[in-house]
Write a structure and sequence with these properties.
437 residues, Helix Hairpins, Heat Shock Protein 90, five-stranded mixed sheet, four-stranded antiparallel sheet, binds adenosine-5'-diphosphate, binds magnesium ion, membrane, HisK_dim/P_dom
């Protein structure tokens, strides 16, 4: 959920940033258009000032209008009158008055002659409060205003326009959705891999620990076994030395032979230990689960009795052949059953454990359910982690070891809670287990 929200937020932010940038580009382009239009209008208006002194002499109206078609008409004045310099005449026309001459200018025609055509959604030319020319709807997204620096025609040229939504590169604007999905996907993948790696490292450390423990035990056993022959050799040698010093060597060969015999025994013990160390290949045998289950129950007789636990089983009779080291399967069941007993110590008479063994497709499936309170949410996640325990006296190695053994048999183990019951462990063993090691 959080990941989807993150993705949505990042996508929206990126799309907004990209969209804003493209809109800004459109705005810059339109601003440039406006500047060209403004410049062209300024040039045209300045031409009016330039032509006024020349017009009275001109007799060729057609020629003038050919060059400046926006000058519709002009009128000469005999005497100086007091006129406003600009007088609106309606329909986009205005009179430009000087002392002796008035010219009528048509703004629509003037705009027609421009290179930059009126491509704006709104275009207006105003003189103070009077609108001389207006075209389009003034309600636009963008707006530009600038006054013309002309002494006689100080108009304000206003333009307005809207963004061209359809022209925006939408596929590019929404592309961050894909990009962020990819980034978040990769992040999730990385996290999952890391978690898997961490858990694998932890298990490897645990296995190493077990190996060291075993080595420790072996070393202790070895010291115990070697102690006696070494002490004997020491005695024989001391005795032999004493006899030689007393010049009585007759018994010395016998003593040395006894010492040699002890040394040979040490040698035999060492090779036995060596064998134990290197005998890493456990013996695979056909497993009779019914029998093994009875054996485990027997081994845990005291605990089951003390907790008044009812034990039941449903073991299918036509199971596929199952090859494994019997001690491993015994250890797996032993660990799970003792946990189930421990989980139900508080409720005698209502405590129960049920084992079900069946064949599913080609797999052998074992399910062990109990009547306890089930696994806590944390235990559900970490039950197979070494040293995870919720019990004060627990070590947290039982289920980790079980998991290791199941994996070595190429099987899988899953933990869950069952409604109306407690914890449930399901083990799947694939066929062809002979090559397990
Ligand atoms: N049948 C079960 N019911 C409830 N909790 C269980 C059961 N089996 C295992 N657990 C939980 O998993 C934890 C780890 O079990 P385990 O590895 O055997 O270590 P330990 O028995 O030393 O605590 C237990 O402390 C317990 O919280
Ligand atoms: Mg345990």
């Amino acid at each position: 959920m959080l990941r989807i929200l993150c993705w949505l937020l990042l996508t929206l932010l990126s799309a907004a940033a990209l969209g804003g940038w493209f809109l800004q580009q459109q705005y810059e382009a339109r601003s440039a258009d406006y500047r060209i239009l403004y410049r062209e209008i300024t040039v045209k208006l300045s031409q009016h000032d330039a032509i006024i002194p020349l017009l009275p002499a001109s007799q060729h109206v057609a020629d003038v209008q050919h060059i400046l078609p926006q000058i519709v008409r002009w009128r000469q004045h005999e005497q100086t009158e007091n006129r406003a310099p600009i007088v609106a005449a309606g329909g986009g026309r205005y009179w430009l008055n000087s002392a002796h001459l008035s010219i009528l200018i048509d703004l629509p025609i003037l705009l027609e002659t421009l290179g930059e055509k009126k491509t704006f959604a709104h275009l207006a030319i105003t003189e103070q409060a009077t609108t001389l020319f207006s075209q389009g709807n003034a309600d636009t997204w963008w707006r530009w205003d600038k006054s013309v620096a002309s002494p006689t025609q100080p108009f304000v040229v206003s333009a307005g326009d809207n963004p061209q939504w359809a022209a925006l590169p939408w596929w590019l604007i929404v592309s961050p959705a894909l990009f962020w999905a990819l980034v978040i996907g990769l992040l999730i993948q990385f996290q999952t891999n890391k978690r898997r790696r961490d858990s694998a490292a932890l298990r490897a450390r645990y296995n190493e620990l077990i190996r060291l423990n075993t080595l420790g035990e072996l070393a202790a056993g070895m010291m115990h076994e070697l102690n006696q022959p070494l002490a004997a050799i020491m005695n024989y040698n001391n005795a032999a030395l004493r006899l030689i010093k007393q010049d009585n060597p007759a018994q010395v060969p016998m003593l040395l032979e006894a010492a040699i015999a002890q040394i040979k025994r040490i040698d035999a013990l060492l090779s036995q230990f060596r064998q134990k160390l290197t005998a890493e290949h456990p013996e695979y045998q056909p497993i009779d689960l019914q029998q093994l289950w009875l054996r485990v129950c027997k081994l845990l007789d005291n605990e089951l009795d003390a907790g008044k636990v009812r034990v039941s089983s449903a073991i299918a009779s036509d199971l596929p052949p199952f090859m494994a080291p019997p001690l491993w399967i015994e250890q797996i069941l032993h660990n799970m059953v003792s946990n189930a007993v421990q989980a139900q110590t508080g409720n005698p008479y209502s405590a129960w454990i049920h084992l079900e063994v069946r064949q599913e497709k080609q797999n052998l499936v074992l399910t062990l359910t109990d009547g306890g309170t089930g696994l806590s949410p944390e235990a559900l996640k970490q039950v197979f982690m070494p040293f995870f325990t919720t019990r004060a006296a627990g070590l947290g190695l039982g289920m980790a070891l079980t998991d290791t053994l199941v994996q070595r048999l190429h099987g899988t183990i899953e933990a869950c809670n069952v409604a109306g019951a407690g914890a449930c462990f399901t083990l799947h063993f694939p066929p062809q287990r002979e090559e397990a090691q």
